[in-house]
Structure formats: structure tokens, C-alpha cells
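Figure 6 in text form: structure in, sequence out.
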């Protein structure tokens, strides 16, 4: 986020798709000019990031425009790269690759559900971008990220930058630290040392039952947890 902010000038526009990174951007990406961080809450439709960046780029031809997408959301509307190339736009698309529906993984973990059906494979994004006539590059090290983003903007045209992302900090930062800051305690139903506690979840595991065949844990107390409280206060949703 810090590196993105360095590369995007105050009037540059960042258009988010929907995924885990949206929570991080919504909380940490500082703006000083109105309408320079575009994100859709409410329905929070995956696939919207690239089209909204295309429109921003069409309207603001003189500004830097960056679409930020997860690998799942990007692949829901990636054919719009053709539109961007055909219209000769200047646009950078940052694809954050975890080969998974990362936000749903986080939510399922927080709510005490098991990790089920969240992984998928991706195309070679650089080759994929080139097949549309766009440019493509892959970030190999954190230290080269901002330079690669800067180079993509300088080169102009449509440029896809793919960066591997590690979401292992989600539970620590977005659940535990938030609890300590807001004063919301851990779910009172969590027993220290219980399975839910060990997993770092909010304690619903204790109330879970098992669906035969799927191995999916369902909570019968899903409305009572602190994660629901947080969502209910108007934070970005999925
Ligand atoms: C069209 C649509 N389908 C499903 C969802 C629910 N949903 C919200 S975030 C998300 C996962 C996003 O995965 P990805 O784009 O890879 O981003 P990540 O969280 O992994 O960074 C899903 C399935 C949605 N918001 N929109
Ligand atoms: Mg993903």
C-alpha cells in the first residue's frame, strides 16, 4: 500500500476490484483528493475493478489510473483488457496473486469454518496480458515492486503487473489487533485452548456441527460474533 501511494500522485486514481486487499486499502490508503480511491461496497461485485479503471482513464486522460484486482476478480472480467488496448488507454492493472479467493478464506477462518473449495490455478498473467497486446511484468521481490509500478506507468499503454501476495497477516491485524484497539473482546464463547481458540477464530467452532460428506462446519450461532459486529459498523463488505 505504501509503495502504491508513492507511485500514484495525489490526483491519481486507484480503482479497486473486490477481495481481501480492499479491506487493507480502505483502512490504510490515504487520499487527499476526492474520488481518487474508487471502491464499491454494498454488492461489492468482483470483476468491477478493471472496467471502473477503464472509465476513469477515459475521463481523466491526464491522470495516472491503477486498477487493483485479486486474481479471482481479475479473471471474472479480464477480457476487458481488449477494450483498454483497443481504446489505446494508459492504464496499469495490478493483479494480486494468491491463487485463491483470499477474502473468503479469511472470512471462513474467522467464523470457524473449515478451509474448503478456495484454491484455483491461474494463467501465466504476463503471457496473458501480452496476448491482448498489453504489456506485462511479474514482481519477484518486495524491493522491486514500486520501481516496476513506476516503470509500467512511464512506459504508458495498458500494462499488467502481477504481484504474489501473502495474506497470513490477516488474522493478526484485522481481528486480534482490531479487537485490542476497539475494546471489543474476543468472542466470549471461546474457551482458552479450545479448537477455535487455537485456530485463532472467534469461537464459533464450539457451536459448529459437521455436514456429512462435505466436512464443512456450520455455526448455529453465526449472528453473535465480533466479526459480525465489525461488519455491521459499515466497514467494507465482500
Ligand atoms: C461476483 C461476485 N462473486 C462472489 C463474491 C464474493 N467474494 C467477495 S471477495 C471474494 C474473493 C475474491 O478473490 P480474489 O479476487 O482472488 O481476491 P483476494 O481476496 O484473493 O485478494 C469473493 C468470492 C463477490 N463479491 N462478487
Ligand atoms: Mg485471490
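Output sequence:
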Amino acid at each position: 500500500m505504501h509503495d502504491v501511494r508513492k507511485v500514484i500522485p495525489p490526483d491519481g486514481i486507484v480503482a479497486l476490484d473486490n477481495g481481501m486487499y480492499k479491506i487493507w486499502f480502505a483502512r490504510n490508503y490515504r487520499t487527499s483528493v476526492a474520488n481518487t480511491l474508487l471502491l464499491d461496497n454494498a454488492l461489492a461485485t468482483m470483476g468491477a475493478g478493471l472496467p471502473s479503471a477503464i472509465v476513469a482513464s477515459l475521463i481523466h486522460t491526464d491522470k495516472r489510473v491503477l486498477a487493483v484486482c485479486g486474481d479471482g476478480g481479475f479473471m471474472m472480467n479480464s477480457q476487458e483488457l481488449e477494450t483498454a488496448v483497443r481504446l489505446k488507454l494508459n492504464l496499469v492493472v495490478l493483479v494480486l496473486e494468491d491463487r485463491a479467493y483470499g477474502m473468503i478464506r479469511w472470512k471462513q477462518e474467522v467464523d470457524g469454518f473449515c478451509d474448503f473449495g478456495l484454491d484455483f490455478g491461474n494463467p501465466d498473467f504476463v503471457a496473458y496480458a501480452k496476448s491482448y497486446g498489453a504489456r506485462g511484468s511479474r514482481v519477484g521481490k518486495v524491493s522491486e515492486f514500486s520501481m516496476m509500478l513506476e516503470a509500467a506507468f512511464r512506459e504508458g499503454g495498458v500494462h499488467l503487473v502481477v504481484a504474489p501476495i501473502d495474506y497470513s497477516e490477516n488474522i493478526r491485524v484485522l481481528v486480534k489487533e482490531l479487537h485490542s484497539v476497539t475494546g471489543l473482546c474476543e468472542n466470549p464463547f471461546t474457551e482458552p485452548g479450545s479448537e477455535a481458540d487455537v485456530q485463532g477464530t472467534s469461537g464459533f467452532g464450539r457451536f459448529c456441527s459437521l455436514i456429512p460428506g462435505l466436512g464443512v462446519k456450520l455455526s448455529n450461532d453465526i449472528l453473535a460474533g465480533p466479526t459480525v459486529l465489525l461488519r455491521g459498523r459499515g466497514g467494507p463488505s465482500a
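Caption detail: Residues 188-235 have pLDDT under 50 and may be disordered.
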